């Protein structure tokens, strides 16, 4: 039993089921010997299995009590315990080539963790770990289904997402009030999105932020009430009904409209 008291402010729910920890570590079985960064190791229940599997492991932790515990109980991590905030880390400097990310992620920042991974997709070849079940379901949702959302639409063009298994509250100390789940993201072969990536993100977020409305109305803050292409079939649908290719097409329509609007504004300014 750990001597560290979980801190609510850090969203800590320490995993205490060793068999679950072993299963999570095994999600990276195909990458043994390659660099792995564990986020939020806490008391090291997952850490132990990652080390035993022979991974080139480093851990990043912001809780001083956990850091002290890890230094005492895991001497193999000497020089590999990073006292940093994962979301603020300069991963490009630390990992100039391929690496993996794993962890029992704090629920309140799990989406931010995946967006951080997405920023580093040219080197993060696999990311796995435990998150809230509801978030896992959204992340792994098939396009054009009611569960799809911002997270799936932004992550899935670049990663194949697997919902692996569900974990009950009893596997943690303290038990969370929700079910948990383990997911794995594996980098696919896509190198280009086929449209302006920044605009794609804006279109996806705008569409899902008003997901109960048809896109004709949901995208009004971005496109206005009148624009060429408004009669395209996509605008009669809701965001949750679109495939990834639909969102790319929608981004092209949006870009064309914004370019026409800018050109018209510049022409008016020159008159």
Automatic annotation (TrEMBL):
S-adenosyl-L-methionine binds at residues 13, 15, 40, 61, 85, 104. The keyword Cytoplasm applies. The keyword RNA-binding applies. Keywords: Cytoplasm, Methyltransferase, RNA-binding, rRNA processing, S-adenosyl-L-methionine, Transferase. It is an enzyme of class 2 (transferase). GO terms for cellular component: cytosol. It is found in: Cytoplasm. One of its GO terms (molecular function) is 16S rRNA (adenine(1518)-N(6)/adenine(1519)-N(6))-dimethyltransferase activity. It catalyses: adenosine(1518)/adenosine(1519) in 16S rRNA + 4 S-adenosyl-L-methionine = N(6)-dimethyladenosine(1518)/N(6)-dimethyladenosine(1519) in 16S rRNA + 4 S-adenosyl-L-homocysteine + 4 H(+). Its EC number is 2.1.1.182. Pfam families: RrnaAD. Specifically dimethylates two adjacent adenosines (A1518 and A1519) in the loop of a conserved hairpin near the 3'-end of 16S rRNA in the 30S particle. May play a critical role in biogenesis of 30S subunits. This is Ribosomal RNA small subunit methyltransferase A. It comes from Tannerella sp. oral taxon BU063 isolate Cell 6/7/9.
